[in-house]
Amino acid sequence: MANRIGFRGRLVTAMVALVALVSLLIGALLMVYLFEDEKSRALEQLSIAERLTNEVIARRTDLELSRLSVVVRDFGFRSAIASRDPATLSSALENHSGRAGADFALLLDQQGELLASTLPRDLDLPGIASTQLANARQNGSDRSLQTIDQRGYELLVVPVEAPGLRAWLVAGFELDQNLADIIARLSGSSVIFRTSANNANGFTSFAASSDITSAMDPALLQSAGGHNFIESARYFTRTLSLGVSGQGAFEAILMISRDASLQNYYRRALEIVLLVAVIMVLATVLALLVARYLGRPVLQLAQYARAVGQGLNPQAPDIRTGGELLQLRDTLRDTLAQLIRREAEIRYAATHDEVTGLGNRNALMHMATEGFRAVQPCSLIGLRVSDLSDINDTLGIEFGDKVLLGLSQRLRDELPDARHVARTGGGEFLALLPACSPEALDHRTKGLLASAESPLNVDGTPFSLKATLISMQLPNDASNTNELRRRVNLTFEQAVQQGLAITRYEPGRDENHLRELKLISDLHSAIRNDGLYMNYQPKLDSHTGKLLQVEALVRWIHPELGFISPEEFIFLAEQSGQIHELTDHILQRVADDARAWFHEGLDVGVAINLSAMDLTRPGLAERVARTFAGWHHSMDRITLEVTESALMDDPVEAMATLNRLRDLGVTLSVDDFGTGYSSLSQLRKLPVQELKIDKSFVLKLNAEPQDQLIVKSTIDMAHGLGLKVVAEGIENLETWKLLQSWGCNVGQGFFLSRPVSKADLMQTAASLLERQHDLADMSQEHS
Fold it and tell me: What is the C-alpha to C-alpha distance for residues 586 and 591, in angstroms, rounded to an integer?
């Protein structure tokens, strides 16, 4: 019988029997595990609902606190508290608590005594413990739950400070049906809020979602706490603790109907039964087709496909039956041919430049890696076309591609022995050559430069290029691909900066670059973590010898590299885009220090240097105004110093920024005057009040007649323009006396005082006070 049925019959019988057995087992197991699976899904949904409830209540609390913080900072509300007038307090409390969305609010004085309330007089006031006030003072707010008139409220206590503690604002937000409905809608569960307050026998419900038919089910309300579930015949439940107060515990009960869950499962069971039936029918039909038509041909095709998948190139099987199997065989054969062709194209594209046909960066780096591994010396020549982007923008990308194609052919012609020539990006080409001496490499580089810059015939038009070339010896100048990429870029940058057509890599160049990268990275941390510190150099009135002002000088002691020159890290801040953050930090530090020494009895102004990039910042004036808000002097005691070169970089924007600062009332000074390129007509138009002569003219003023002529004429010119004159770099008494005799208004320098820290400024001021008589201009007093 088995022999008459044959393999195909047995295959069909076995497949149908297996499908039938599996289907029956699935049906039986489904009925056994149906309820447990539904219970697990319901409990998982309750877990999600629990997390969502916590999130909703937490976000609701954060929103309430943010609204209350706006209320306690409101000037009108603070004014009402300061008045202590009951009617004003009640009106202000009612208006502002309504704006904050509070259901009621209390206002307490510093000792916790009631000042005003929006609760009806017949209701008991909630008790606010001293520990709550202490916690609110320490953390900025305090949260608790209480019941009032059989309703649950979230109580938030916020201090009112202006400055110092003025009062306490207590706001109550009801845990009501609206909140329960929101949680129920988001979580897909029913919600009941209950509390054990004022109920020694169990819990009492004070709010529930609108889909609860009876929130007073004893099984849900009178059960003891301490568990995260409640036994109920109608619901899957989860108990969530909302908090414990002096009155008792507050909980939320999350519920999912058992009946609804089981109805859902009955529907799913029916769908699964129908699906199993359909699968059995399809499996029977498929088994018959497979056994009858796809036995041997399918096996042949499977073996063919397996060989293709393994990356082989097998012979296509001979399929005698026509139709789809033959088409499948042909499709697999064509797919294999396309895969082989596409793989070759991908390999070529991965290692070649599509415009020039040369190798690309990947190919060159792969060859360099092989050379590094084999410790095989070689030489490298790099060529970079200047202004390729301008060529593309002006003459078109197609023209630019033709330029690159012609240049690549010249590279092939000039470097026939090159191991690899690659276009590594844009207008950059790199070539690996057999190792040669430095002299021979220089000779080949010069020849390549001459060839590259000779006129190139593009579409019948001679076209000349400007190129920059570099050379390196591998592995002496770079021992791995990371060093190679970095040092190639650094050498190109060095060549461009120095205006050199040919540059050979010099060892040690990239250490400076790595140092700059480290300083840029660490400067951000130093600004954020107060790693910078301020020194202040006194500026004295040349007539009276009195201390008028101090110039703020930022300093940085790097934890690893030691003292970093201000010129270095300020330049890096400008290059890395951190200059505005640095300026803001300096402004804030100076403002804080000035307020501190004013309270200690020192009455001096401040001078702060600005970067050229600060003058192109539209919000600079607003930043200065915010930083020096509440300044203890008039704003003209604040001097902002800008250099001549900064004014010339972007005159229009700089003038707009200076005008905004002038409108703010600060004093503006042209720093380092005499070293820039500004003209007298431009100086006359600037809204500045002060001119600061550069120290290069002052350092040897007592011994250099030419410097004396320049400084004296500059002082006369500035006075003629109505400007005050400051001289920096005063190193000796003779220079100081000369400046006094010429009418210089203010002076600073090591002879008068070196820059000192904030801690030493008081002592320095006292020392200058003792020298004031000696430093004063006695000649004018006698006259």
Answer: 8
pLDDT at 203 over 90: no
Q: How close are the terminal C-alpha atoms of the chain, in Å? A: 142
CA distance 778 to 783: 9
Mean of pLDDT values over 335-360: 83
Nearest in space to 108 (alpha carbons), one of 125, 120, 91: 125
566 CB neighbour count, 10 Å cutoff = 15
What backbone torsions phi and psi does residue 204 show, to the nearest 5 degrees? -125, 130
Instruction: Report, in this order, helix, strand and coil percent for the chain, each rounded to 5.
Output: 55, 20, 25
Residue 557 C-alpha from the chain's centroid: 26
In whole angstroms, how far apart are CA 409 and each of 134, 404, 519?
A: 82, 9, 43
Residue pair 336/308 in contact by the 8 Å Cβ criterion: yes
H/E element, 558? strand 547-558
Asked whether 548 and 568 are in contact (CB, 8 A), the reply is no
Structure confidence at residue 298 (pLDDT): 64
Of the two residues 540 and 311, the one the predictor is more confident about is 540
From CA 758, how far away is CA 755, in angstroms rounded? 10
**Separation CA 70–CA 65 (nearest Å):** 9
* 317 secondary structure, DSSP code: P
Helical (H) or strand (E) element with 294: none
Asked if 607 and 551 touch (Cβ cutoff 8 Å), the reply is yes
Distance from C-alpha of 184 to C-alpha of 215, rounded to nearest angstrom:
14
How is residue 555 written in tokens?
């300093």
Q: How many residues comprise the chain?
A: 783
Flag the least confident range among 307-316, 376-385, 494-503: 307-316
Q: What is the pLDDT of residues 564-621, one digit of tens each?
A: 889 888 888 888 889 999 999 999 999 999 999 999 999 999 999 998 888 888 899 9
β-strands 638-643, 605-609: how paired? Answer: parallel
CB within 8 A of 692, min separation 6: which ones? Answer: 641, 669, 670, 671, 672, 673, 725, 726, 727, 728
Residues 278 and 270 sit within 8 Å (Cβ to Cβ): no
Sign of CA pseudo-dihedral 36, 39, 43, 45: positive
DSSP conformation letters of 399-463: HHHHHHHHHHHHHHHH-TT-SEEEEEETTEEEEEEE---HHHHHHHHHHHHHHHHS-EEETTEEE
Phi, psi of 613 (to 5 degrees): -70, -25
Instruction: Judge whether residue 80 has pLDDT over 80.
Output: yes
Could you please report the per-residue DSSP string of 153-186?
EEEEEEEEESSSEEEEEEEEEE--HHHHHHHHHH
Q: What is the pLDDT of residue 711?
A: 93
Give exposure, 555-564, as e/b (b: 16+ Cβ within 10 Å). Answer: ebeeeeeeeb
Are 662 and 693 contacting, i.e. CB atoms less than 8 angstroms apart?
Answer: no
- CA 768 to each of CA 549, 565, 773: distance values in angstroms, whole numbers, following the listed order: 12, 28, 9
pLDDT computed for residue 675 by the predictor: 72
Of residues 267 and 526, more confidence is placed in: 526
Structure tokens at 445: 């580089």
Integer Cα distance of 497 and 499 in angstroms = 6
Residue 215 burial class via C-beta count within 10 angstroms: exposed 0-12, middle 13-18, buried 19 and up: buried
**Residue 553: strand, helix, or coil:** strand
Give the distance from CA 416 to its chain's centroid: 50
Query: 496-524 pLDDT, tens per residue?
Result: 878 888 989 887 666 677 777 888 889 99
Mean pLDDT across 96-123: 86
